[in-house]
Amino acid sequence: MPTYAPNKMPTSVKKRYFELLRAGYKGAAAARVVGVSTSCGSLWFIDAGSMIVPDPGPISPRFLTQDERIAIADGLHAQQPVKQIAASIGRSFQTVYREIKRNAKTDGRYNPWWAHNQALLRRRRPKAERIRTSEPLRTLVPVKLTEKWSPQQIARHLAREYAHDAVMRACPETIYRALFAGLLGRRDVKLRTGRTRRKKQRRGVPTLNKIKNMTLIHQRPAEVNDRKTPGHWEGDLIIGRGQGSAIGTLVERTTRYVHLIHLPHGWKAPQVRNALITQTAHIPPQLRKTLTWDQGRELTLHEDIEALTGFRIYFCDPHSPWQRGTNENMNGLLRQYFPKGTDLSVHTASDLRNVARQLNHRPRIVLGDRTPAEVMQECLAGPLTR
């Protein structure tokens, strides 16, 4: 019988045992050095997966080390909360949650040496690129990209449609890398943003209190924030080359349904007022509750708009685009159709309707991969009160 029970030795002893194995010691020799029986060491070795994967050391600080995994295991054994364990090793609690979920053994136990071995095995390079080796993926992914699906939407689509076929899986990063490496074609296939990296977007906000009789966003009804009741919209303008043209954008907060406002005669306050009044008349009255806008001069005549549309208009604080974040997100999507620095006056009302139709029939993760058109139709079919 072994002199020591395999799970009752201090963690430091086990750590030294595995360090000796990685250094090339035989199991029996390593057990003698740390003062345990050969059978006890063998049980540790078997519990760790019966393998020792060479550890070149972390190639980036974002990777967990063996010592950090040992600290996680000790914390779990002591029944410490995950957030407390994360704080003790200087990591986010999300990192620790993912580590436990990903590298726990099949019986649910977290063995730090097993976990480290699994991480090292996954880190081994080179690995065959999934899309390079899969002809079906190289055929399907470009089709979705040309339909202006994002890599995230494509990845979720693959996971749903090919749930039992691991070969037909690709995470968003795999799709990005394949695209930038030219595996999906270089001419027709591209991201709908047309960019290879993020670029900050900011439009200046005029001075404070330039609009008379504004009602600020802090006075907006509380029901707007929970997104359970449709009929609350966010609006803005996207500006063309030389600030000579613009398109109005309206997004419904609950359904993410977008409606574009054609401004062929300019975007000063009278033109914007007239366009909003005439081009929102088709929206059912029960879906015209509130409209949140920034403090742009184009809405100086907001009182006229309220009187003739039924919208109650609320204004964001200066320099606070996050207060109408749904609209900011939609404006980013619209830039694939209306790039910055271009003349927006060349687009007809029919063009705007076609763009809005395409966006409203694109699945959104925030809607459970349903489309804004589907959610809006459900709202119209159900009971609505103004």
From TrEMBL:
Keywords for the protein's UniProt record, in alphabetical order: DNA recombination, DNA-binding, Transposition
Residue ranges annotated for the Integrase catalytic domain, each copy included: 226-380
Domain of life: Bacteria
One Pfam short name: rve
UniProt key word Thylakoid: no
Gene3D superfamilies per UniProt: Ribonuclease H-like superfamily/Ribonuclease H
Function per UniProt: Required for the transposition of the insertion element.
Protein name: IS30 family transposase
